[in-house]
Amino acid sequence: MKKIKAKDMEMKVKDIDFYNLGFELIETESMFLSDYKNGKWDNGKLVPFGPIEISPAACVFNYGQGIFEGMKALERFYKILIDGLKKM
User: Each residue of 38-65: b (16+ CB within 10 Å) or e?
Assistant: First the structure.
């Protein structure tokens, strides 16, 4: 795991290779945290890098499950469609 200190890094958009972005963890010394209350986001703040708390009912979990189920349904739809076309 790489650790990058903000004071050691100055990155500009032109320096980012968008075709080779990875999915590995790049730990930094801080992270941005903002709260959503009363229909709007607050100004947020930089806090030390660390764990975050998330509700088990967070929509992100439902979204991931929905994509997975949708992929299974689409695969079944295509199998039925191809089988039907083969019988014609």
Answer: eeeeeeeeeeeeeeeeeeeeeeeeeeee
